[in-house]
Amino acid sequence: MELELREKCGVFGIFNHPKAADLSYYGLHALQHRGQESAGIVASDGKTFRHHRGMGLVTQVFSRNILDGLTGNMAIGHVRYSTSGASLLQNAQPLVFKYSEGGLAVAHNGNLVNAHIERNVLQQQGAIFQTTTDTEIIAHLIARSSKKYFSQAAPEVLKILDGSFAVLIMTEKQMLVALDRQGLRPLSLGKIGESIVTASETCALNAVNATFWRDVEPGEWLLIDEKGIQTGRFAVKGEVSLCSFEFVYFARPDSVIQGRSVLAIRKELGQILAKEHPVQADVVLAVPESSVPAALGYSQQSGIPYEMGIIKNPYAGRSFIEPTQELRDLAVRLKLSAVQEILEDKKVVLVDDSIVRGTTSKRIVELIRQAGAKEVHVRITSPMVRNPCFYGIDMPTKEELFANRHEHERAMGDVIGADSLAFLSTEGLLEAVDVDLAETSSSCIACFSGAYPTKLYLK
């Protein structure tokens, strides 16, 4: 995976469990791939919020002593990668507020495309913002709602929001779970006995030994309190547009989204890619770790053996932007190394899931050639990324995107140093990720096609 594409965040919530904070910790740990900049948990005992947020990974932010202090039987948690708002502690979530009805905590995965409009209106009305995130808008709208009670105000506020949001909103006694009207982000529900669990992905439910219940439907809200679960809709169920990159890259392979195994879909993407773009070669490699299932699929379909010719250093961590080209190249070598014994004098198929700027792909091809490969044929399990994302994925501007700076695949292949380069077709992607091609696509492919599922309210 070209490391420029990063998801915004992951959310986790649990209601009616004596170890709510502990389970939130494990749930967030399972969602760590969705955000590594900050983490936070808010817990409630029915009367008081106790919360902690910090910059870094879940294991760095929380200690045993901190978790012991987060007492209560309900909690929401968040891991973040910033796409809206800077990477600062003040923007770490869940955000916590006090308003006329008591405490309010918000955890949000996604991006509100009408955020700047709503923010301007609120500021003109005298609202004072403490963060630069779009998430804070949700709290201000609830606090200023004409509906007095949270159970009425929150569903009304959801009608105002546009864009992508898998959101958890908590008071001292109630928790509201909601998903945007297009279902652009995944959000699942589970149960541990009488306890209710919600998470961005089912891998987090598995981590806390919760039984999967169902997915939250697009345009649906659930209010959970001591009386039970109320459900309602803030928008009619329309055309679902789940982000296709959840299947291509973002989600963990052991997650199930909309009843479909992410691992199985990634293998199918590789199989379709092998049919669309065959090549004579000796070995198939994956850019670890996200491309391994697709590479296995390519290998199975093509009959070319799969080898672990590229090894990822599990201790490399996240690389920061280095000041010189030499140091950037060393950062790639720190993360990835090529196995000369496997690659020397071989014709190689390198499977990756996307090309964004092209710089990382170029360095990996160079790494493989330096290990002695005779030929390197790059195969990508998604179409060309030609358009920016406005729904919570960190992506370069349209002009910076690799596919927009070169006329065709041959020219792009020359730039990254490959003997050939080919991308999965849009039809091939939809064949794998869409449940029923007889109906309108249920996936958002805006970054490939330019057809966005919502109004964008561009500045």
Count the beta strands. Answer: 25
Secondary-structure class:
alpha+beta
Which second-level CATH architecture of the largest domain applies? 4-Layer Sandwich
**Largest β-sheet summary:** 7 strands, antiparallel
| Outline type | elongated
Number of helices: 16
So, the CATH homologous superfamily of the largest domain? Aminohydrolase, N-terminal nucleophile (Ntn) domain
Low-confidence stretches: 318-323
CATH class of the largest domain: Alpha Beta
Radius of gyration: 22 Å
Fill in the CATH topology of the largest domain.
Glutamine Phosphoribosylpyrophosphate, subunit 1, domain 1
* Content of β-strand: 25-35%
Biggest sheet: strand arrangement: 4-3-5-2-11-10-12
The helix content is: 25-40%
Can you tell me about this structure?
With 459 residues, the protein is of the alpha+beta class. Helix content is 29%, strand content 25%. Helix 9 packs antiparallel against helix 15 (426-433). Mean pLDDT is 91; it is low at 318-323.
